Amino acid sequence: xxxxxxxxxxxxxxxxxxxxxxxxxxxxxxxxxxxxxxxxxxxxxxxxxxxxxxxxxxxxxxxxxxxxxxxxxxxxxxxxxxxxxxxxxxxxxxxxxxxxxxxxxxxxxxxxxxxxxxxxxxxxxxxxxxxxxxxxxxxxxxxxxxxxxxxxxxxxxxxxxxxxxxxxxxxxxxxxxxxxxxxxxxxxxxxxxxxxxxxxxxxxxxxxxxxxxxxxxxxxxxxxxxxxxxxxxxxxxxxxxxxxxxxxxx
Length: 250
Prior knowledge:
Layout lengths: L1 H28 L21 H12 L3 E10 L2 E9 L5 E7 L5 E6 L6 H11 L4 E10 L2 E9 L5 E6 L6 E7 L10 H11 L4 E10 L2 E9 L5 E7 L5 E6 L6
């Protein structure tokens, strides 16, 4: 029995070189296994340049500066970073970068706004056949802006908000004009309102845009001295809403 066991062990040990040779030969002839990269789905969102990179770039170009504010502005087609800062000469400056590419677009002084003629030239590139209605400077969200009202070649009326220092378009609102090309006057609106509230006392009126519709908001006291606010479509004269104003706590 012992001789048989020894014979089996010797036979198995004698097969080891042949088994190893087979494994080595298989490794030589077998094709190499390569890692397959995991497919990544393309993202639809455009990334923005890191803000720290743009601030650092501004410091390199303008030396010792004190950054006052940074904000993301513009429309989806061209989002921009606006950096306001004070340079070494104590001058207020504004640098504008393309938010997606990091490209420098403008570097201007905040001492005085751009002449209105230059702002309108930039708008003419977008609205070649525009007719200017009016323009003015206004404070919106704590920033000085230039508001331009115009009509395009299709007689659609636009209210465009521009950066007054660079001419960049920050926002656009479009609304249709009545067939006669005029809005209902404030006097006509008030006359219509007084038909419903004969003893009304007008406190305040203002024009604004809601849901891309030009409207007139009228705050007033009705016959019972209740404070109300009426919203009227400035083109059609239609009453959009007429509601009681909440009483503010003392």
